[in-house]
């Protein structure tokens, strides 16, 4: 399977034994992380299929870790799993309470929900406005907790959208609405902010961006700024790199996706399945956020995603689904040229 021929001039040498890349694109079911469309690039190598899909706000140097993860999947493969399924959370975007409850009920039996908060509306000039009113967050979280029922767990993700004062003011209210939050993910953008929220409140703190976009991921540990770390395979350079980092950090790990197709999600499942301990549900049930997928989607069954049983525990694209999700020639060319630039940095 190859992309359209008009992308030909942008093709690169297959020095790793990789096929010509295939570029996919799909609308999002609900606007998420400021995205209405998600796209990426797939490569096939001797070990199976890998995905390269850094967000467009990542520069070429920062995107190189994403390429290392794709190459690992396609050329080297992954460690053997120590479990046959991975418990997952349902992800609830910044939507109204009725829609939030619907998402939970349609989640495939998930008993944990991650709810997006600190949503900042996009202004006409491209800048972000103030975080949404706390009342809207309370209503969304309460609806999610009610839909989960007794024994359900609610975690929230602010994506660094609060300052310390705002986080400490809102968290007790949101904790009450949830009937007790499991944790708050990245309440503030900086490590110092995370540490201040952790010291000043009682809700456990998870670090995401302060790990995956940091020059020194261990700064979070030295500052005692987090109780939990969130690891994402592509931004951190692959499954093996994440396993090494998890050992260095020494804190409980939650594996989350970077909004990949199911080919890319398989790498997250591989990491979660290889970790010695997995005390929390993982954020890997995000194929539900895409209108289309390139393979039969990795979806939860009774709240867990089964580890793929195909060769190397990879997911192989379905030709018909891949064809339906194939990007336009313009998008294909942009991705292939981007990959060529990123690979040249090695």
TrEMBL record:
Domain Mandelate racemase/muconate lactonizing enzyme C-terminal: 97-204
Catalytic activity: (1R,6R)-6-hydroxy-2-succinyl-cyclohexa-2,4-diene-1-carboxylate = 2-succinylbenzoate + H2O
A GO term for molecular function: O-succinylbenzoate synthase activity
Pathway the protein takes part in: Quinol/quinone metabolism; 1,4-dihydroxy-2-naphthoate biosynthesis; 1,4-dihydroxy-2-naphthoate from chorismate: step 4/7; Quinol/quinone metabolism; menaquinone biosynthesis
GO terms, biological process: menaquinone biosynthetic process
Pfam assignment, any one: Enolase_like_N
Binding site for Mg(2+): 157, 185, 208
Cofactor: a divalent metal cation
The entry's keywords: Lyase, Magnesium, Menaquinone biosynthesis, Metal-binding
Active site as annotated: 116, 232
InterPro entries attached to this UniProt entry: Enolase-like_C_sf, Enolase_C-like, Mandelate_racemase_C, OSB_synthase_MenC1
CDD domains, alphabetized: OSBS (cd03320)
Similarity field: Belongs to the mandelate racemase/muconate lactonizing enzyme family. MenC type 1 subfamily.
Entries under NCBIfam families matching the protein: PRK02901.1 (NF002782)
Chain's role: Converts 2-succinyl-6-hydroxy-2,4-cyclohexadiene-1-carboxylate (SHCHC) to 2-succinylbenzoate (OSB).
Protein name: o-succinylbenzoate synthase
Species of origin: Luteimicrobium subarcticum
Underlying gene: menC
């Amino acid at each position: 399977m190859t992309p359209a021929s008009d992308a030909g001039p942008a093709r690169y040498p297959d020095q790793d034994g990789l096929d010509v890349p295939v570029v996919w694109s799909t609308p999002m079911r609900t606007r998420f992380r400021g995205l209405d469309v998600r796209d990426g690039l797939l490569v096939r190598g001797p070990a199976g299929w890998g995905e390269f899909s850094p967000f467009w706000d990542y520069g070429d140097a920062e995107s190189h870790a994403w390429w290392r993860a794709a190459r690992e999947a396609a050329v080297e493969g992954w460690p053997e799993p120590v479990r046959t399924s991975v418990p997952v959370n349902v992800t609830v975007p910044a939507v109204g309470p009725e829609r939030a409850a619907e998402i939970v009920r349609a989640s495939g039996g998930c008993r944990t929900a991650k709810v997006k908060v600190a949503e900042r509306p996009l202004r006409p000039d491209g800048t972000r406005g103030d975080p949404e009113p706390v009342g809207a967050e309370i209503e969304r979280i309460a609806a999610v907790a009610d839909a989960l029922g007794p024994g359900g767990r609610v975690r929230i993700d602010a994506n660094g959208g609060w300052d310390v004062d705002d986080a400490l003011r809102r968290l007790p209210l949101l904790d009450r609405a949830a009937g007790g939050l499991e944790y708050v993910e990245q309440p503030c953008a900086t490590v110092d902010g995370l540490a201040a929220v952790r010291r000043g409140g009682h809700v456990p703190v998870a670090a995401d961006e302060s790990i995956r976009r940091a020059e020194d991921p261990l700064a979070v540990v030295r500052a005692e700024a987090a109780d939990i770390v969130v690891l994402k395979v592509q931004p951190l350079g692959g499954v093996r790199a994440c396993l090494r980092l998890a050992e260095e950090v020494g804190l409980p790990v939650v594996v989350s996706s970077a909004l990949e197709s199911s080919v890319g999600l398989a790498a997250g499942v591989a990491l979660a399945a290889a970790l010695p301990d997995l005390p929390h549900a993982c954020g890997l049930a995000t194929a539900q956020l895409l209108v289309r997928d390139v393979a039969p989607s990795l979806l939860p069954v009774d709240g867990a995603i089964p580890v793929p049983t195909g060769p190397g525990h990879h997911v192989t694209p379905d030709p018909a689904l891949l064809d339906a999700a194939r990007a336009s020639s313009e998008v294909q060319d942009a991705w292939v040229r981007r990959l060529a630039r990123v690979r040249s940095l090695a």
